[in-house]
Write a structure and sequence with these properties.
The complex is a heterodimer. By secondary structure, chain A is an all-beta fold. Chain A has no helices and eleven strands. In chain A, strand 7 and strand 8 form a beta hairpin. The chains are: A mainly beta, B mainly beta.
Chain lengths: ~110, ~110
């Protein structure tokens, strides 16, 4: 099992550009999450999904959109990137039944200039 | 508001014992988790406490007191590889609410020879 994978690993954007971050998991987990982590900070939840076709807002959803068209994939979109969105983005997943562990991907390091 | 407080830095020597405290104030509480993160990589799950008391997993133990809104992570027989950031996280929703986590800002543990 590859676990949770994220694409791309690094990206540099100019202000106003758009991009999509892809998260994929092969563990058949129901729940998926997108977090951002800024220097010296903990992880803050952007959006999450409790199943295919469902999404919900987290703590810091503004400026981001998400989609969960397939159970194994969770996409995070930035329609018009801003320097304040420079961060490391982590995706995580969690099985519905049993277990409280969230499994994290390796992260995407995004810089917006 | 929702907040978790933990020390920003802790330093200890190899072979010693260190305790990282976490106090929380959240609207919901379904358990306290601990995660380890090395050099900005993927956070990895260490422990989870839903009920009061001590949970032990090898060299690591975690404690929870719900009446005090307080928990700690205890690391014994410290090794150099334990140098990392440690995050406490409150689960503020039940399973049908996505099992969302709110993270503290993290404690940077440095283990010295």
């Amino acid at each position: 099992n590859a676990g949770v994978t994220q694409t791309p690993k690094f990206r540099v954007l100019k202000t106003g550009q758009s991009m999509t971050l892809l998260c994929a998991q092969d563990m058949n987990h129901e729940y998926m999450y997108w977090y951002r982590q800024d220097p010296g900070m903990g992880l803050r939840l952007i959006h999450y999904s409790v199943g295919e076709g469902t999404t919900a807002k987290g703590e810091v959803p503004d400026g981001y959109n998400v989609s969960r068209l397939k159970k194994q994939n969770f996409l995070l979109g930035l329609e018009s990137a801003a320097p304040s969105q420079t961060s490391v983005y982590f995706c995580a997943s969690n099985p519905l039944a049993g277990g409280y562990e969230q499994y994290f991907g390796p992260g995407t390091r995004l810089t917006v200039t | 508001g929702q907040s978790l407080e933990q020390p920003s830095e802790v330093t200890a020597v190899e072979g010693a014992i260190v305790q990282i405290n976490c106090t929380y104030q959240t609207s919901g509480f379904y358990g306290l988790s601990w995660y380890q993160q090395h050099d900005g990589g993927a956070p990895t799950f260490l422990s989870y406490n839903a009920l009061d008391g001590l949970e032990e997993t090898g060299r690591f133990s975690s404690f929870l007191s719900r009446s005090d809104s307080y928990g700690y992570l205890l690391l014994q027989e410290l090794q150099m590889k334990d140098s990392a950031s440690y995050f406490c996280a409150v689960r503020d929703g039940g399973r049908n609410q996505g099992g969302k986590l709110i993270f503290g800002q993290g404690t940077e543990l440095s283990v010295k020879p």
